[in-house]
Design a protein that fits this description.
Blueprint lengths: L4 H27 L9 H19 L4 H15 L2 H20 L5 H19 L8 H15 L7 H26 L1 H6 L4 H18 L21 H7 L3 E8 L2 H12 L2 E9 L2 E8 L2 H11 L1 E9 L6 E2 L14 E7 L2 H9 L3 E4 L8 H10 L4 E5 L6 H10 L6 E4 L5 H10 L6 H14 L1 E7 L4 E3 L2 E3 L4 E5 L2 E6 L2 H13 L5 E6 L5 H14 L4 E6 L7 E5 L1
Parallel strand pairs: 6-7, 6-8, 8-9, 15-16
Antiparallel strand pairs: 1-3, 1-4, 2-3, 4-5, 10-13, 10-17, 11-12, 13-14, 15-17
Helix pairs in contact: 1-2, 1-9, 2-3, 2-4, 2-15, 3-4, 4-5, 5-6, 5-7, 6-7, 6-9, 7-9, 11-12, 14-15, 16-17, 18-19
């Protein structure tokens, strides 16, 4: 990507927001009781923002105009669920205002951007309801405009001042949502979509100012009233299906479409512009909702989900003809090199390839899950940064009728340990337990080369130094790969172990690895040593102990 400061700031915000949504995903899912208690708002917001970030990264945009355009369009095309569609409209309208506003008045530009985004979100919803993400967006907008009154005169400080005020107001508005919406009050929760929007504003505050928002107490200071309506009773009262599709249509046709959809169901949201729209509705008449889109333009990428049962879906993508029968079990593994990919494939896993600077996305993992043709799938992320994407993917494929479980493997060697005990003949739950145990008991280390001068947990390093990693933390700063690797091995085996795994990276001298193996065998004669060529970049050696 370009080194433009403006694009770098956009990228940093996108990364922080995606990380925040991933960390809060389960919390937000648990809050989800409105408009239907399907428990997927956090997952949908994560997937929506991930689509926007992926579009930005893949575009390699060299101007802020291009970067904002592809970012907003990525959110629009990848929007999931009611809240995801609304957030995509906030981003779309906000990007449009940022491109049209006066950069010489940065504080006003940002405040007007937040205001226009809130206005557009209200306009996109067929029947706006207070106590939702819309109320949180409006509160942030009002606070941003009010902040202009006492904004700093220094241009470089104005945006930070405005975004701090907007983020604080969003958090306060979120706490008021149970007083505005009876469904939330009865369930004793704040609005799920509003909580997600607060995460996004908090990420913006950190990107602009470097300050983190205060930690949120997930509990509400109010007792749960009794009785609380059951999930089944709430679902039974509403429409049966969620219908979503992209629509190519001219602007005048969209107003007619919104009117037509308003008579067919609830939660109507139509967002977009420039000829491309994302349409969302909850309805009992799927055919009429699609026909309304055909009358307005060209619908495509249709998604229909049965709200009463999230495990059944109509009109959704399904495994290809000839795929494995029901109740077969698949494994998806993320690999960091071609040699590792071959190891996982030989063990029967569908592989998602990743590399430094190219993290695999939720969509990549979903695609791999589908290729297994199985209705029971185990996912091995094999990297800490991929865990959130794997968890979001496993949640998303429930709509496809797939039962998926994520093994919290944070290193390639942990994934290999899990695959070694995988047994499709066991029950799904037992297999997951055994694979999780194997991964958890595999201690992991690595050797890498410092790319720049830095301060690490092992002390200061200079560019070109050899760094030893133990269980994810820098533990050794050295000047020789083999000696540093042996130091890592000593630390890993200090807690015991029966087998040591050495995985060499791309371009590594095999003679050096052989000498390391001889040294380990001489020092620890009771430990079995196995060696593989992994082909991973940036890490000359990956090390595992079981």
């Amino acid at each position: 990507m370009t080194s433009s400061p403006d694009i770098a700031l956009l990228e940093r915000w996108a990364d922080l927001a995606l990380w925040g949504l991933g960390a809060a995903r389960e919390e937000i899912d648990a809050l989800n009781v409105y408009p239907v208690p399907d428990g997927d708002t956090g997952t949908n917001l994560y997937l929506t923002f991930e689509a926007a970030r992926a579009a930005l990264v893949e575009s390699r945009a060299d101007s802020l105009v291009e970067a904002l355009t592809v970012f907003a369009r990525g959110a629009l095309v990848g929007a999931r669920g009611n809240s995801g569609v609304i957030v995509s409209q906030l981003l779309w309208a906000g990007a449009d205002q940022l491109l049209r506003g006066n950069p010489l008045e940065p504080g006003k530009l940002l405040a007007d951007t937040i205001t226009l985004a809130a206005d557009a979100a209200y306009a996109a919803v067929g029947q706006p309801v207070e106590g939702t993400i819309l109320s949180v967006a409006r509160a942030a907008s009002d606070a941003a405009q009010a902040a202009l009154v006492d904004a700093p005169t220094a241009l470089g400080e104005q945006m930070g001042h405005v975004i701090r005020a907007a983020a604080a107001a969003a958090r306060e508005a979120l706490d008021r949502t149970p007083d505005q919406l009876e469904t939330l009050r009865l369930a004793g929760v704040v609005d799920a979509g509003g909580r997600g929007l607060c995460v996004i504003f908090d990420a913006a505050e950190q990107a602009f100012t470097g300050r983190r928002a205060p930690a949120r107490d997930r509990r509400l200071a109010r007792p749960l009233p009794s009785p609380v309506p059951s999930e089944q009773s709430i679902r039974a009262e509403g429409p049966g299906y969620e219908v979503m599709y992209l629509l190519d249509a001219d602007d005048p046709e969209v107003a007619l479409l919104r009117s037509a959809l308003g008579s067919l169901g609830t939660s109507v949201v139509v967002v977009g512009g420039d000829g491309l729209w994302n349409v969302h509705i909850h309805t009992d008449d799927v055919g009429a909702a699609v026909e309304a889109g055909i009358a307005a333009g060209r619908p495509h990428r249709l998604r229909v989900t049965q709200l009463e049962d999230r495990h059944s879906a109509v009109g959704r993508c399904t495994p290809a003809q000839g795929s494995a029968p029901a109740h077969t079990r698949g494994v998806v593994a993320v690999s960091a090199g071609e040699g590792l990919a071959a190891l996982f494939e030989d063990a029967g896993a569908a592989v998602v390839r990743a590399a430094p600077g190219r993290r695999c996305s939720t969509g990549d993992i979903i695609d791999a899950i589908r290729t297994t043709g199985s209705d029971q799938v185990v996912v091995l992320p094999n990297d800490s940064d991929t865990l959130q994407a794997a968890e979001a993917a496993s949640r998303a494929v429930r709509d496809l009728g797939v039962r998926a479980a994520v093994i919290p493997s944070r290193a390639q060697v942990q994934g290999l340990a899990a695959m070694a005990v995988h047994e499709p003949g066991r029950s799904f739950d037992d297999d997951v337990v055994q694979m999780t145990s194997a991964a958890g008991h595999a201690r992991h280390g690595a050797v890498t080369i410092a790319a720049r001068d830095a301060m690490t947990t092992a002390g200061r390093c200079s560019r070109g130094d050899v760094l030893g990693v133990v269980d994810g933390d820098f533990a050794v700063v050295g000047d020789d790969v083999r000696r540093t690797a042996m130091d890592v091995v000593d630390r890993l085996l200090s807690g015991g172990g029966e087998m040591l795994t050495l995985i060499s990276g791309a371009g590594v001298d095999t003679t050096m690895v052989g000498r390391l193996r001889e040294q380990v065998e001489a020092t620890y004669p009771a430990v079995a040593v196995v060696e593989y060529s992994g082909g991973q970049d940036r890490y000359p050696l990956l090390i595992g102990v079981e």
